[in-house]
């Protein structure tokens, strides 16, 4: 096993820890790890990412549910339109993306590069949310849920999940706090439930288009599950706002690296 492979499998634990602590960000790490450390193509990596993040988030959601930190009504209002969006995106939109995406005598944009560039831009947007948006770190107060706004956000996150294999926790948590008025810890638990359903539906929708290396995928996912069990335990001791700000800067740096690597190197 090469040093890159060792780092890749070690990073899978970090993916789980991140999901357990802040209820999102796992897919932001998963795709770069699969592509740059383990050498898997971006198209296949998006499919693998959906399975890893979906399975790991499901385990985390069960742990939060035991602590009564999952709001099922908010999850339902968000998830139903999101399920439809991710399924349609994986079934029709992703296979329809041409390769190359754009081509002229002076410029050539392969599908794999386009996916990574889009993902880098998503990471930069996510980092801004985590660094600047202090409202999502308050405890909030429960109030009336806005199902229409949650549904609209669900469609957006579902499309994002389908295209780039991102669970969308960095969009889901602010939505749950600001639109459903959930306390931050309940938003984290509810986010994990939504992410798990979104990601696994996206994985199943695209399964017919990829050949899966199940031995690798299950091993990688098992380490990520260990990470989320550790992450949910660490929530008792780690400050959520501080961790989210630090992780936001890490996501920003990683997004810049991917963007520079794919467009200039």
Question: Which features characterize this protein?
Answer:
265 residues; mainly alpha; two-stranded antiparallel sheet; globular; cell membrane; transmembrane; Probable membrane transporter protein
Structure in words:
The chain has one domain (3-264). 76% of the residues lie in helices and 2% in strands. It has helices at 3-22, 26-37, 42-66, 72-96, 111-132, 147-164, 169-178, 184-206, 214-234, 240-264, and strands at residues 102-103, 108-109. A hairpin with a 4-residue loop joins strand 1 (102-103) and strand 2 (108-109). Helix 4 packs parallel to helix 6 (147-164) and helix 5 runs antiparallel to helix 10. It is globular and about 55 Å long. The protein starts with a helix and ends with a helix. The model is unreliable at 135-142 (pLDDT under 50). Keywords: Cell membrane, Membrane, Transmembrane, Transmembrane helix. It comes from Larkinella knui.
Give the secondary structure arrangement, pairings included.
Blueprint: H1 3-22, H2 26-37, H3 42-66, H4 72-96, E1 102-103, E2 108-109, H5 111-132, H6 147-164, H7 169-178, H8 184-206, H9 214-234, H10 240-264
Helix pairs in contact: 1-2, 1-3, 1-9, 2-3, 3-8, 3-9, 4-6, 4-8, 5-10, 6-7, 7-8
Low-confidence stretches: 135-142
The total count of helices amounts to 10
What is the number of independent domains?
Answer: 1
Rounded Rg: 17 Å
Largest sheet: spatial strand order: 1-2
Which structural class fits the helix and strand makeup? mainly alpha
Tell me about the largest β-sheet.
2 strands, antiparallel
What distance lies between the first and last C-alpha atoms, to the nearest angstrom?
27 Å
Task: Please write the string of helix (H) and strand (E) elements.
Answer: HHHHEEHHHHHH
Number of strands: 2
Helix percentage: over 70%
Shape field:
globular
Kindly report the average pLDDT value. Answer: 83
Strand content: under 5%
Membrane topology: Multi-pass membrane protein
Family: Belongs to the 4-toluene sulfonate uptake permease (TSUP) (TC 2.A.102) family.
Transmembrane segments: 7-29, 35-62, 74-93, 113-131, 152-180, 186-209, 216-234, 246-264
GO cellular component, one term: plasma membrane
